[in-house]
């Protein structure tokens, strides 16, 4: 082993990467990151939108069960729905409350920067990136 090291020192054998090779590798990594990061952020954003809408859709049957038991939506809240009707109700549900005279309801959820809500019964889930739409 010493003879090998001795030969390398005497022969001035140098091996490794040149500065140009290292710079090329860094440029390639930079280009790949420039492509991957925006794509990842787009996937994350769409996932948050879909999660908020899904959480609202999952809470709707609990609201209907509440109405079936009480003949009104008055008194409905996320805590009541979770405690009585669906223990697996998402923690992202920020509002589940009656509107008007108690014959309708509004359920909303927030995931990331996205809000989803539904005015029910029979409403369509809407998602937006601004403030909560429930009154």
Describe this structure in words.
The protein is α+β, with helices and mostly antiparallel strands. It has one domain (19-128). Helix content is 52%, strand content 19%. A hairpin with a 5-residue loop joins strand 3 and strand 4. The protein is rod-shaped. The model has no long low-confidence stretch (mean pLDDT 86).
Entry keywords:
135 residues, alpha+beta, 4-stranded antiparallel β-sheet, 3 helices, 52% helix, rod-shaped
SSE order: HHHEEEE
Question: What helical percentage do the residues reach?
Answer: 40-55%
Strands in their spatial order, largest beta sheet: 1-2-3-4
Terminal CA distance? 80 Å
Q: Please tell me what the overall shape is.
A: rod-shaped
Element layout with pairings:
Layout: H1 2-11, H2 19-70, H3 78-85, E1 93-99, E2 104-111, E3 114-120, E4 126-128
Antiparallel strand pairs: 1-2, 2-3, 3-4
In short:
The chain has helices spanning 2-11, 19-70, 78-85, and strands spanning 93-99, 104-111, 114-120, 126-128. With 135 residues, the protein is α+β, with helices and mostly antiparallel strands.
């Amino acid at each position: 082993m010493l003879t090998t090291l001795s030969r390398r020192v005497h022969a001035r054998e140098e091996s490794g990467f040149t500065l140009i090779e290292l710079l090329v590798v860094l440029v390639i990594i930079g280009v790949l990151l420039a492509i991957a990061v925006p794509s990842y952020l787009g996937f994350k954003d769409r996932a948050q939108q879909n999660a908020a809408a899904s959480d609202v859709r999952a809470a709707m049957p609990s609201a209907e069960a509440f109405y079936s038991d009480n003949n009104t939506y008055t008194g409905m809240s996320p805590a009541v729905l979770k405690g009585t009707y669906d223990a697996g109700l998402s923690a992202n549900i920020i509002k589940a409350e009656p509107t008007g005279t108690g014959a309708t309801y509004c359920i909303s959820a927030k995931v990331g920067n996205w809000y989803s809500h539904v005015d029910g019964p029979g409403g369509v889930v809407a998602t937006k990136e601004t403030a909560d739409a429930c009154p």
